[in-house]
Amino acid sequence: MEPSVARNETEGGGRSSGLRARVGEVLGGKWRLDAVLGAGGMATVYAATHRFGRRAAIKLLHRPLSDDEPTRQRFLREGMVANRVAHPGAVAVMDVDVAADGSAFLVMELLDGETLDQRWDRCGPPSLEEVLETTDRLLDVLVAAHAAGVVHRDLKPENVHIGRDGRLKVLDFGIARLGGQGLEETRAGVVMGTPAFMSPEQMRGLGAGVDGRSDLWSVGALMFALLSGHHVHERDSQVDVMVAAASQPARPVAELVSLPVEVERIVDRALAFAPEDRFQDARSMQRAVRHALATVRSARGAALDALGYAPTHAEDSSGPPAQSVVEVPVLPPVGVASVLPSVAVAAVLPSVAVAAVLPSVADARAPSRGTPVTGRSRAVRQPPSGWTLAVAGGGAAFATVAKAALLAALLLQVGAACARRAPPFRSAAWSRRADVPSVRAGSPHASCAATTSSSGAP
User: Sign of torsion, CA 436 438 440 444?
Assistant: First the structure.
């Protein structure tokens, strides 16, 4: 079952049954709804097939909202705004139409992958390198969007999609501002967006003061959440979160997680309370992110070289960054049974050597006295001299030191083998599992290289 479907079916039997009830319906005499991919507060997304066989995602506005003209117009306007962004990272809207019952819908490209929040639920928190790569690609889309006069205003994990091929898509341009004006600005005091990722000026309803730097604050909030496991402002209620976001500066990310200084500076600058203190455009923030990413990759490469690892393929920053997978050599299992023979040899060998040497030394050094005894002669040994006892004590000490040295070398070898076989460290999860002390700097875990669902934008 696709993650987005599974999540929605837990939200209430009545609602999920209503969503599934439309599966099989044909919209406009052309599009057959095949399956529910996801649902949001305004719309439901279905996988659909055209009568000529083409596959697409249908974003269907909830029926009651279709009767509200401003909401309906804003919904239909999303297609126009998304197509204004001349970038492959903006989800393409191919058509708009109205179903027989009056529900407005958009025909969008069908995406094969998952959103960042779905990926988090499946794989756990991302690595530092993954966060920087995702941020780099997200900012590349924003460069094109802002150049076209489009301010997204609702950037969050649910609206960032990662495909099976690693390509990033920005979803849901429903509340975007186009050419300096948003549809909802005709109603004073209306605040739209997701509180955890809304900039201070957006939270205060300053329509004219919301520009591209507001999106950069949202990108900083996204990085903050992915890296630390916490939202910028965490309070007991959404109202308190909104008050804090509108009136208080963001806390430094270093209070929650240990990061390279370059990354800390990027996050903190993006989250500056005053727009003039942030990055002034998406391109300048992207340059800073790429510099930090190069530094992290360089450090990781040096560490892997020291451990004898080899990446499976070179990373190419000229195209869309692919998932970086490090091939770790597979070593034989290290268990008690395989270690015991070596331990036994290390423990016995020095003692045997000392036991073999000491008698010959004692024979060579200790004087002997004796008298003939009928037919044979026998030497009567004197009690061990002080020199002999000293040699014996020194030999025992040598055996102890030798055994300790051999055991230490053996343990170091076993430890190195175990380290090569250990999986990359992952930090704990974010606000839902809010005990995150640190973030790993390694490359993406192999189990998360592939995604599991096809989806559109709820």
Answer: positive
Which range among 15-24, 361-370, 407-416 shows the weakest confidence by mean pLDDT? 361-370
Read off the pLDDT of residues 35-70 as tens digits, 9 standing for 90 and up: 999 888 889 999 999 999 999 999 999 988 988 988
H/E run at residue 93: strand 93-98
Half-sphere exposure for 239 (CA within 13 Å, toward CB): 0
Report how far residue 255's alpha carbon sits from residue 232's, in angstroms, rounded to the nearest whole number. Answer: 11
Q: Whose CA is closest to 419, among 294, 271, 304, 250?
A: 304
Write out the two tokens for 216: 């950069």
pTM: 0.66
**What is the average pLDDT across 426-452?**
43
Q: What angle do CA 286, 287, 291 make, to 5 degrees?
A: 115
Tokens of 169: 């898509």
H-state helical runs in 375-443:
386-421
Nearest by Cα to 137 from 272, 322, 271? 322
- Kind and range of the H or E element at 73? helix 69-84
Which DSSP symbol is given to 109?
Answer: P
**CA-based angle 210:69:80, to the nearest 5?**
55
Residue 425 C-beta-side C-alpha neighbours within 13 Å = 9
SS3 152: coil
Residues present in the chain in total = 458
pLDDT per residue as tens digits for the range 213-230: 999 999 999 999 999 999
Rounded to whole angstroms, how far apart are CA atoms 30 and 50? Answer: 5
Write the DSSP symbol of residue 438. Answer: B
Distance CA 154, CA 218 (A): 8
As a whole number of angstroms, the distance between CA 192 and CA 35 comes to 29
Residue with tokens 């319906």: 25
CA distance 433 to 197: 19
How far apart are the two ends of the chain, measured CA to CA in Å? 17
Q: What is the Cα–Cα distance from 178 to 139, expressed in whole angstroms? A: 18
Pairing of strands 177-178, 150-151: antiparallel
- Which residues are the active-site residues? 154
Is 191:121 a contact under the CB 8 Å cutoff?
Answer: no
